[in-house]
């Protein structure tokens, strides 16, 4: 919605509001009239004199008293009609008007008089009430004066005392004193007139003097125009609302004639300093505390060199170096400037130079005489280094620009930029209402000062945590020092530390980004701590209030014609209405609600409360606060009890330092909190120390899901807020059996409370996941293996044994058949079988069993093919005596392997798949394995874990847990023609071997992917190959979608899928068509109808792995398009939005085609 539409809407609402107030005033007047009439009837004061001795009003009253009931109702109806101007009877209107006049002038008690009932005063004239309301509404700003005129004309027939023009209503001056100022014009309002308008006796009683801050800045008025405003603004110390002292309007940024621009200001300041300020017959001392300007304005007002000068620093005498077209200030220990040394430089400037001097060598900081010297202004100590322009829009904006654009020695990769933007976008729902601008993705380094401040002090701690170690330390140096200087508590206590960190930041930035980074703003950081030590916290002399006020001034300009006169008249109209300084209100309860009907504390419940100028709410973003004892809590309810407001909250059980460099974060009240307790406690507003900004972390418990094994050996997905400890043992809450599947699934997804749940003891947490989809996908694996290698698992607990699986080895007498078998791919790997297919595959193998007696000859025959080794198939030599008794020999491992056993090809060994392994075991790194295990002991041949029985007895496979339980005995293993002695294998060795095997598999897969990439680059015309184990596309059901999410949870598979989809999209298409092509290939319309970009009653698509893959594919295709992410998101939203309609249309067409299809061949023409 554009600006004009918003203005029209506000004007329509204002007209409706004014009409409503007018009707209310008329109803109030009517009720007052009736009440006064009834009182006169009761007291007997009404007059019954003759018509000649009475006025018209008394006749009306007597006639009204002598009327019957029906006539009385008619008279009241006529009165109502007269108020609204709808009566056709002029005599009745005149009579009623006289009655109103008599009510105002009569001797009877009026609502505003002091009577025995002490009734509140009310407007007897509705026109006066409406006039006052329209006046205040117009002065509130943002209202078109033409619309005000239209409103006055519409209300004039009803309220005769209203003027026809806003100029009469607001007493707009007809003439404005404008002074010519060289390249523009100046309107000077004055300090005294503004102070009389805003000052109150309460303020003067508190401060006993008048101290103000001065701000001078420029603001452009229109687009594609050089016309600017340069206002002189003032602000009372201790207040947040600036006022206008004077405004310059002209072409260019600054007034050329500085003497004319500041002449009226300097004269008035001298007068106020000499004669003091007179207010209610009492004089108060006047002083200017600070001049808060940006660097460009300071250089212009003080008449000193700008940032391109060699001696541009205002606080010290450092000489700059011209490097890469920038003036770099590299020395940070030079002599400081003082007010006296500045006067000496001005005096030296006034002395004529008889000899030419070099500007590069002599301190030429001053290049003119400032008019402020006439009012004895100290041009060094009175001018502040503004944090908004210096720190946020200066240093930190430059830091982000160098990081984002790749200047210097370090730059962010595209992946890091996406991660930072994604994290900032996810902070929106966590951002408190204290921030006017919510976090969003960084699309460029040009941000608002408030956004830069929030990122530097709060969001950046989490958003930049994955950056390079040196870059993160550099950021923390700036963050900690600015956080200290902004705090009203720490700016004095830790001032020396802040100075040390700022100097370290400047030095470290030089090595990180190069010398070109150390310009005027970065160098000025070394003087910032001394500024705060002398003049207060950094925010006490910031320019934020003035910047907001500049926007309000700009919004009052409605046309390009005479903008200075428009602003001058609006300010002079405000002079007619005295403004009062608004004081902070006491704790205030807002938004009544019924959060918890079972709350033991009686009283009305609310959603918000105002505590120490901060709003606390039961909403997620505004519910966190710190108590006086240091505890961090989250508010869940607010109750107005008999003894005052009571807040209900929950504590965080664990608090730790979030960072330790350059100092511990706990010293600054910054903590990493976790484990939100379920038990609630009660506190009062006096217990609260300050409000907190809570940011989510991946490792935080309350954002995780856990796979829990219960006592009956079943595994379920349980939110971590359902877990607890009881007598040192882990317990879990879970819904009862009578709950439906839909209710259970919804409770788990919504992380509901524990009400109505059953307590289960002797549970074990197998693993925790950040995604509920991944947790559900691994639940079945946990039921089969009971091993997800959880950090919560107690290794001393007895582990559940897997069921014994029986199978038979397929045999064949035919040598040709055996040769064919040797060329087949290896048998199913270990983890695929563990995931549910073991029994089915082994039954198929048992169906093909051959005669056991022929297998022995097959094994030892010279022409037999090599044995296919796998985690599930291995053969041991049988002992004749043991085979007769059908006793099992223990499974052992080889002590020494021959050359034939170690030289195993990849076709002979099929290790676990990469995806399956990460869902079941955690693999250690290669370096960790080399430290703990000999390479010879990690041979894949150690995975042989089976034994053979004779006759019809099947091959029995034991789990790794049973290996150590078997009784050792003499046994041997045949590999090719070699006979190797075996020894028992332990569970730890078995798990280590699997980890090494997977590591080898991952390395080989990585090499294979690299080789495919090289081949694709060498042969672009080669057909694109689909990634291995990618589910069949397009996806049509939610189960298939969940399986695909599990597949894409692996970074390597996700990267392969992204590359595969990017190769399937033509580059000449638009981004929208590319997205549509990928969606048609990946998911059906029926499945897409279940999703929405942000959820809203459906499943959320923006947080899925498939969304990341689609975005990555589009980015790979459009590498030169900087706006591709926004276009891709818009296209995905549109595709999901219209998916239900496409699915319904397709279903309708299918039904029509099926109904119209011929049932007999004879019907075909």
Can you walk through the features of this model?
It comes from Frankliniella fusca. Residues 1-43, 837-848 have a biased composition (Basic and acidic residues). Residues 45-55, 91-108 have a biased composition (Acidic residues). Helices cover 42% and strands 14% of the residues. By secondary structure, it is an alpha+beta fold. The strands form nine sheets. Strands 12, 13, 14, 15, 16, 17, 18 and 19 form an eight-stranded antiparallel β-sheet that branches. Strand 5 (227-236) and strand 6 form a beta hairpin. Helix 36 (1071-1082) packs across helix 39. The radius of gyration is 42 Å and the shape is globular.
Write a short abstract of this structure:
The chain is an alpha+beta fold and 1165 residues long. Helix content is 42%, strand content 14%. Strand 30 and strand 31 form a beta hairpin.
